[in-house]
Amino acid sequence: MAPTSTTDAAPAPRPMTGVERSMCRGSVWPADCEVPEHGSVVNGALFFRRLPAMEAITTELCSVFSSQVRFRSLATKDGTWEPTTLDLNYHFVQEEAVAGQADAQRLVEDIIQQDLDHNFPLWRVHVVPVQDRRGLSIVVLRIHHCIGDGFAIASIFHSLARSEDGEPVKETALMRKLACERQHEQQTCSLATACNGVAQIGRAHV
């Protein structure tokens, strides 16, 4: 079981951005696609030969999430982030140990098809122990897309990475790749914004 303590809430709500609001409501997807609620959840997994204790997993992740308002706020349908306390018994789930890797994979497939409860901040961690010594235990991190994207979840995993001597890892090949992709995305958006601005000026003078 996860610890029963909760963390303190932030004092004031804040409005969502347009993208966050659309993601929260699911209106970002075309209606005819019929995307289920869990289709808006980003899922990531860490694999361990030696699974850390549940208390250590909870402590490490809470230390990362505590500085992010969206991770400790309710995503309300009216388009605001409403600060709340974290119920660690909801957010950290210790699954029953499974025999081997195939069983773990089936369990993870079931987990990622579950909807997140909007009565809590929209993220959850599932810990899946594997009994087979040749297998890898799994920590599944699920974050609703209104909180963050794949880059955000990768950044969280990177912040948890440690070298063999226990020191934080400064840089990994994955983070270098993601940083390049994010830079390219930002440059593309900037170019599109500039082109749109020029087009607006042109139309104003027609």
Concise account of the structure shown:
With 206 residues, this protein is α+β, with helices and mostly antiparallel strands. It contains 6 helices and 7 strands.
- Tell me the strand percentage band: 15-25%
Number of helices: 6
Radius of gyration: 20 Å
Q: How many β-strands, per DSSP?
A: 7
What is the overall pLDDT average? 82
Helix/strand-derived class?
Answer: alpha+beta
Unreliable spans are 1-10
Helix percent reads 25-40%
Q: Order of strands across the biggest sheet?
A: 2-7-6-5
SSE order, one letter for each helix or strand: EHEHEEHEHEEHH
- Taken from the alpha-carbon principal axes, the silhouette is globular
Largest pleated sheet? 4 strands, mixed
Tell me the span between the first and last alpha carbons.
67 Å
